[in-house]
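ok trying again, last paste got cut off:
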Amino acid sequence: MPEFTIRPVTPPDIPAIAALAREAWQASYPGIITQAQIDFMLEQRYNYPQLMADLQDPGKWLDQAFAGDRRAGFAACEIYQGEYKLDKLYIHPESQRQGAGGALIDHAIARARELGYPCVILAVNKHNEPALSAYRKYGFSVRAAVTSDIGDGFIMDDYIMERRTAVSPGHSPPIPGTSAAGRRKSAP
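nice, full thing came through this time. structure:
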């Protein structure tokens, strides 16, 4: 299995991240959601201005996993409603089941723990069995089921999953907007 290096996403990486997202979505979501919804969500979430705004947001972190010089995947995390959320995790189809996802999850868990968050949450489509299986393998369990209207007649039918971070007792998360919650671009 290759060894993965985690590096922050930078503005020059944005086109490659958007392309990787498209490849991962096209490999994963047909049969789960329609092509029209795939196109809508990719345009909504992976256009250049949106990804640039995400990079500039101090409450969001975008990281990428490399095996040597090959970009294997990326993750985006954020503080969402007072919790640390793994918002995006996409691995190139040729790199799946080789440890890149686990490396990015471990990186997210470590950052959440360092910032004082007791758990990491994520949303995953209820019918995405490979992703559900992978998240369970990495210690996540289902906390809730949600259905969200995302516009244009599309919905997200997801499970909210969580994994505890084993934060030390008495260590509380920072208040959003304070320096402790600021952008960290390097490994914790």
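cool. The beta strands are 5-8, 60-67, 70-80, 83-91, 119-125, 141-151, 154-164. The CA atoms of residues 111 and 188 lie 6 Å apart.
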